[in-house]
Amino acid sequence: MEKKSSTLSVLLGAAFLMATSAIGPGFLTQTTVFTQTLMASFGFVILISIIIDIGVQLNIWRVIAVSKKRAQDIANDVFPGLGVFLAILIVMGGLAFNIGNIGGAGLGVNVLFGLPPEMGALFSGIVAICIFLVREAGKAMDRFAQVMGLIMIGLTIYVMFTAQPPVGEAVVKTFVPDTIDYLAIVTLVGGTVGGYITFAGGHRLLDAGITGKESLPKVTSSAVSAIGIASIMRIFLFLAALGIVAQGLTLDPANPPASVFRYAAGEVGYKFFGVVMWAAAVSSVIGAAYTSVSFIQTLSKTVEKHQKWVIIGFIALSTLVFVMIGRPVRVLVLVGALNGLILPIALGVILVAAHKTKIVGDYKHPLWLTIFGVLIVIAMSLMGGYTLFTGIPQLFK
User: Fold this and answer.
1) All residues at 6 or more sequence positions from 345 whose CB lies less than 8 Å from its CB, including other chains
2) How many Cα atoms within 13 Å fall on the side-chain side of residue 206?
3) pLDDT per residue over 223-238, tens digit each?
4) Distance between CA atoms of residues 85 and 89, nearest Å
């Protein structure tokens, strides 16, 4: 009974780790901004992105579980050196976005207590480090992700109800939109399962020993649950923002999600935003650090031996960079564009691996998942390439 309870805790922990890794400061901002521009039709974007996210997640988590290997080791088995390349991309993206996440945590503390963002960032970095100083860091990380996820969803539901969104219109436009924004779809997919995010839960299950064909039902359930948790948060935040913009109120361009919470519930709502922003940012910091280091630990015996301290160093470095330099916007945007290309590369590698017996043994990967995965790789490659070659030159003009 105790083992069953422990397994359930790990499955939930992996789902929440992936979901809370996705729900960071960028997630809050992009959801609010797209709602402001697309109004109720943004529901269609969310629907399509959820379907794509599930396709990505199921392909990657199932192959990791069956092969009993981390993504970088799978990539090296597909083509020697490919795993090192993938690990470099993941760590670059994880470090850059962790600097942004630490900044978001500092903003959350600033909203709650009026402290300078730099002081808030330092405090938040220490909290994240303390999670990994606990003897059973894996369990502590699982529990922290679950608690933060539930707090974020609970507060956002409250704000959604006070915003009184036009739910009927949102439901109709989700299936019959006025406009279809393909870039918004790609942005949402990249923000939910791009870069290191989709691997957070998959690698956590691997570390907990939930692997092999016999574990596939559990892995599938955890993968879908992870997307479900992130999507619930996205839907409630969308409805909250829609309720505000539908009233003709203008959001603060400097901090759109804070405007939603403040308009909906006054100063109490603004404080709620501080809690949500802090919870989203710190849980993303933990997810990014854990997953980024998991990508290099099998490539280096030293890293593998001192995994916990390398994770702590990763968080400390992210915090110090933000405190000393501030948010390096150009670097964040540049690596953001690169991060958009990580998903098709990583998913493409996994799809090839899914059909190599030396990697997955006698496991037969579902044909529909393979076809779905190939379509996602093509679509994300085209859109990621567009962003890289048109958006980045504009940034550095």
Assistant:
1) 86, 89
2) 24
3) 999 999 989 999 999 9
4) 6
Distance CA 94, CA 278 (A): 18
**Residue in this structure with the two tokens 């909290």, named with its chain if needed:** 127
The domains located in the chain, with CATH, are 2-395 (1.20.1740.10)
Q: How many CA atoms lie within 13 A of 275 on its CB side?
A: 19
What gap in Å lies between CA 345 and CA 377, rounded to an integer? 8
**Both structure tokens of 301:** 């015996």
Name the amino acid, one letter, at 88: I
Predicted TM-score (pTM) of the model is: 0.86
Counts of helices then strands in the chain (DSSP H, E): 18, 0
> In whole angstroms, how large is the CA radius of gyration of the chain?
20
State how far the Cα of 270 lies from the Cα of 254, in Å rounded to an integer. Answer: 14
- Give me the residue label for tokens 């064909």: 213
Q: How many CB atoms lie within 10 A of CB 320?
A: 15
> pLDDT averaged over the chain?
85
Place of tokens 């805790």: 9
pLDDT in tens, 250-280: 888 878 888 898 998 888 889 989 999 898 8
Q: How far apart (Å, rounded) are the C-alpha atoms in residues 231 and 23? A: 10
CA nearest neighbour of 218 among 7, 68, 361, 379: 7
Angstrom distance (rounded) from CA 310 to CA 89: 18
